[in-house]
Amino acid sequence: MNDTVNAAPARTREREWAGTRILDQRRRILLNPAFQLRAVVSISGLTLLLVAGVDATYFALQQTLTARTLAIAPELKEMLRGQDQLEMAWILVGSVVFMLGVAAVTFIESHRTAGPIYKLARTMERTGAEGPVLRLRLRKDDHFREIEEIFNGMASSLQVRASMRSSETRRILDEVDEAVEALSRPGVPPSDVQNRLRVVAADLQKLEESIGAC
Questions:
Q1: Which end of the chain has the lower number of beta carbons within 10 A, N or C?
Q2: pLDDT for position 16
Q3: pTM to 2 decimals?
Q4: Cα 9 to the chain's mean position, in Å?
């Protein structure tokens, strides 16, 4: 029972680190079905045409060589026919294996291309709802790895700015509380309260300008 409870956090889809959260790696195979399948079909189709052309050329050369041999030794007809059939069978098997290999490599590469885009879009979507506390983590064999550094740098910068504005807002609120408390105390010169309110207004103006500059 305790093992099950302790293992539960390891299966969560997010990890926390230094006040930020990193979304776990993607678990879907088809991240962008349209893109990935189109890449596999197009590359496999082109490869099929090339392989078919090579196989057809070899078959034509084989038949030409066999015809010349039969013209000299007709008694070898059955042996040559069996040999030709065996060779073409192995060539077709090799062609099919090659085609499957090309399709597999194309699918893997399309996954490594679609993966970073999928992960970036998902992280940006969550960032819009939760703020700049998420970090992007790509796989080591993904393409466009520079996206990770750029996005995380942007998110860190936004998080620092948000923290600075939060601290500035709390300081201004403390000044407002002090000004209100000063108004309730007897004997406080009105000029003192006015000066405090001017300082608060100036700070609010600076905060507004910094927010509007983003």
A1: N
A2: 52
A3: 0.66
A4: 23
